């Protein structure tokens, strides 16, 4: 999965670069609109890259595991306190 995402991410970078070059060759009115939209696409792609990196890191898996255990313990503790 990670290899596939890296390849897709590379493709996305290439496509955005191509769109950027094409937009820069257009008339000023159209150019400004398209460059603004490309800026949004670049920001979205960067967010996705950061999110993927966060999720795929070993520390993220441990943090998710700890969070699940902590929430499970909270549920157990609330049930115990209700029984008392």
TrEMBL record:
Residue ranges annotated for the Vesicle transport v-SNARE N-terminal domain, each copy included: 11-55
Record keywords, A-Z: Protein transport, Transport
Top-rank taxon, per record: Eukaryota
Oxidoreductase keyword on record: no
The family this protein is said to belong to: Belongs to the VTI1 family.
Protein name: Vesicle transport v-SNARE N-terminal domain-containing protein
Biological source species: Hibiscus sabdariffa (roselle)
